[in-house]
Amino acid sequence: MERRPMEKKRFDVAVIGAGPGGYVAAIKLAQNGRSVALIEKNFLGGTCLNVGCIPTKTLLANAQIMHKVKRAGEYGIVTGPVTFDFAKMKQRKDAVVEKLRKSLGTLLQANKITIVQGEAAFTSPHELKVVGKESGWIEFEQAIVATGSQPLDIPAFACDHKKILNSTSILELTALPKKLAIIGGGYIGCEFASLYAEFGVKVTILEALPTILSLQGKSLAEALTSSFTKQGIEIQTGVLVQGIEETSSGVSIRLKDRSPVEADLALVAVGRAIASKGLGLEKAGVQTSDKGAVIVNDKMRTTVPHIYAIGDVTGQFLLAHVASHQGIVAASAILGLRAQMHYNAVPAVIFTEPEIATVGLSTEQAVAAGYSVTVGRFPFAALGKSIATLDTDGFAEILSDQKTGQILGAQVIGHEASTLIAEMALAIQNELTLECLIETIHAHPTLSESWLEAALIANGTPIHFPPKRK
Question: Is residue 168 within 8 Å of 273, Cβ to Cβ?
């Protein structure tokens, strides 16, 4: 790629990283009259758009259609033999990413944001050196670090992106393996397990902890384990992967005190690493944690008052929507507007089959915080809309304070969980109570009625569920 020199330029704000945090902050600033340089070493949109949220959910949309087609007979629909073209699915995924990437570029240009293609590093508290397609120096009054994260690579079984893949390189597959071993049973590993199992791949999840989805709590972990087992996904927990050897037919995964697991491909999904190395943060005086996370306050300001950090690089919540909100908070602080970051109502979604979504506190967290907890759980098997659409797996659960009725947390596993969680995020954000939810009329027949029913159960006044015996 031909490089052309870039003049030394001055901007009000330099934003490093054009992911969902960086570009949102840049737009907010530009719309309020600031001159903004948005610096990106790879593609606009960051991990989320290019190798994360969007491509994986595009592929998972294919899996959802396949799931419905397989069950067509239950709806009285005769399909005959069903085939699919995975290479064409990959092409559709690439087309979706490219379309959104171009749309983002147009949006940024419309906001008169200067896009700089290259890798940036601080040379002083008010200057960046950029190396890449556009090399040179940028002076700034204020800066936002939004460099994100990347798949964690384990030296004992490093990815070669041929037979040992990570969450980025597996997106380039155009043909399905017969057997896939996934190291890591967190949300990334589980999403890929759900995707490939739907298309007939024999999937084995290898998790070091006692359960998959350990961070999501016992009830969700048990529910997804049960669903995955029915789908033919093998789950081995409490296992330690010691190494991965390539074989003539694929890979052999060595486990401590267990027999090795043979597969065509291995996916390493053990987490993500914060991308803060090589930024020259020390030259700007910005402090980081032992794990490389940039230390920030509730206005996203670092230890250097005119430099901010947002998104995965802060190590707070590695979620695109959190990065975007942090971007708004940081931009607002720069503009002198009132803004403060809080994390009490962060929704999180896992796009497995069935979907999982959570917001607020878990039961364990609430008890640890000193709350007297009341839990109301309503199964989709008792919901009219779910029965009508044959989507009866799962439940909606509300956690509330026994003394005040304030809603503390919620979780849902089942059809459209990703959409359902929004109501509870709004409720927790605005400190609503069970009474507020009960007094809100919910349309019938809908899935959102499950929240009303769960609230009624938590309140001890169930309508469409048997009361507890006194």
Answer: no
Q: What are phi and psi of 230, to 5 degrees?
A: -65, -30
- Considering the domain architecture, whether residues 257 and 166 belong to the same structural domain is answered as yes
Q: What is the CATH number of the domain that holds 115?
A: 3.50.50.60
How far, in Å, CA of 462 to CA of 377, rounded?
Answer: 11
Same domain (yes/no): 312, 370? no
Antiparallel, parallel or unpaired: β 36-40 and 114-117? parallel
Q: Give CA–CA dist 50/29, Å, rounded.
A: 24
Half-sphere exposure of 178 (CA within 13 A, CB side): 6
| Distance, CA of 202 to CA of 218 (rounded, Å) | 25
Secondary structure of residue 1 in the 3-state scheme: coil
Q: What was the pLDDT predicted at 235?
A: 98
Q: Could you tell me the maximum CA-CA distance found in the chain, to the nearest angstrom?
A: 79
Same domain flag for 19 and 138: yes
Would you say residue 470 lies in a domain? no
469 pLDDT more than 80: no
> What's the mean pLDDT in 201-227?
95
444: annotated active-site residue: yes
Q: What is the rounded distance in angstroms from the CA atom of residue 297 to the CA atom of residue 303?
A: 8
Q: For residue range 261-278, what is the model confidence (pLDDT) as tens digits?
A: 999 999 999 999 999 999
pLDDT band at 470 (very low <50, low <70, confident <90, very high): low
What pLDDT is attached to residue 1? 33
Is there a domain that residue 280 lies in?
yes
Kindly indicate the confidence band of residue 72, based on its pLDDT and cuts at 50, 70 and 90. Answer: very high
Contact of 374 with 458, CB cutoff 8 Å? yes
pTM of the model as a whole: 0.94
- Nearest partner of 324 among 16, 27, 12, judged by Cα: 27
| Residue-by-residue DSSP string for 67-112 | HHHHTGGGGT----S----HHHHHHHHHHHHHHHHHHHHHHHHHTT
Give the separation between CA 234 and CA 232, rounded to whole angstroms: 6
**Confidence band for 3, pLDDT divided at 50, 70 and 90:** very low
Does residue 191 share a domain with residue 94? no
Tokens of 157: 């079984």
Of 317, 319, 284, the closest CA to residue 302 belongs to 284
Q: Which of 306, 325, 342, 444 is catalytic?
A: 444
Q: Which domain holds residue 189?
A: 155-270
Q: For residue range 20-63, what is the model confidence (pLDDT) as tens digits? A: 999 999 999 999 999 999 999 999 999 999 999 999 999 999 99
DSSP 123-156: EETTEEEEESSEEEEEEEEEEEE---EEE---GG
